[in-house]
């Protein structure tokens, strides 16, 4: 039943990737996670914003980046604008202000559709892993053991599908606020 542990590890990884993808989908609430991993081309290297300055939330919809190096400000502004987040970016001195405009109803619907399609992609990956595990389970000699393994696998799939659905519900709620 080693393959069940392997499958669970793969499911965990799929769930982590989904969470990371959801962090990149904006809501009406500002979060440093929205911009911290955007790469800035600085000194011929791709450096995430979180390594170039501190990011703070300024309610209701602003992110403030205090840059450590004045020379990287324009590059950072360009990187944020090029990320396609639909935010307004301005800079003054060593500070960059990222303002999230209020989401329109149409944009909220688009984002919810994106959340659902992203989660469906994760469920498809899990189904493929499940099929792989079923094939490995058919290699078991004892029929009772095969049946128990199949049941445990189904429980695992159900648990992870439930967790994906919970993530979708949470992200959808965040978008609609």
UniProtKB/TrEMBL annotation:
GO terms for biological process: translation. Keywords: Protein biosynthesis. Residues 18-176 form the Ribosome recycling factor domain. InterPro entries: Ribosome_recyc_fac, Ribosome_recyc_fac_dom, RRF_sf. SUPFAM superfamilies: Ribosome recycling factor, RRF (SSF55194). Pfam families: RRF (PF01765). The keyword Protein biosynthesis applies. The keyword Protein biosynthesis applies. One of its GO terms (molecular function) is ribosomal large subunit binding. Belongs to the RRF family. This is Ribosome recycling factor. It comes from Candidatus Colwellbacteria bacterium CG10_big_fil_rev_8_21_14_0_10_42_22.
């Amino acid at each position: 039943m080693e393959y069940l542990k392997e499958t669970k590890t793969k499911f965990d990884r799929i769930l982590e990737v989904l969470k990371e993808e959801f962090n990149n989908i904006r809501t009406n609430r500002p979060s440093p996670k929205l911009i911290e991993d955007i790469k800035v081309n600085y000194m011929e290297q791709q450096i995430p914003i979180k390594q170039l300055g501190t990011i703070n939330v300024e309610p209701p919809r602003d992110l403030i980046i205090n840059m450590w190096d004045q020379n990287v400000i324009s590059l950072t502004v360009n990187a944020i604008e090029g990320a396609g987040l639909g935010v307004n970016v301005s800079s003054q001195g060593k500070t960059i202000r990222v303002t999230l405009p209020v989401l329109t109803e149409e944009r909220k619907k688009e984002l919810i559709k994106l959340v659902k399609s992203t989660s469906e992609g994760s469920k498809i990956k899990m189904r493929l892993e499940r099929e792989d595990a079923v094939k490995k389970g058919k290699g078991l000699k004892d029929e009772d053991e095969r049946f128990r393994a199949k049941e445990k696998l189904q429980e695992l799939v159900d648990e992870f599908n439930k967790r994906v659905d919970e993530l979708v519900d949470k992200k959808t709620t965040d978008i609609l606020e």
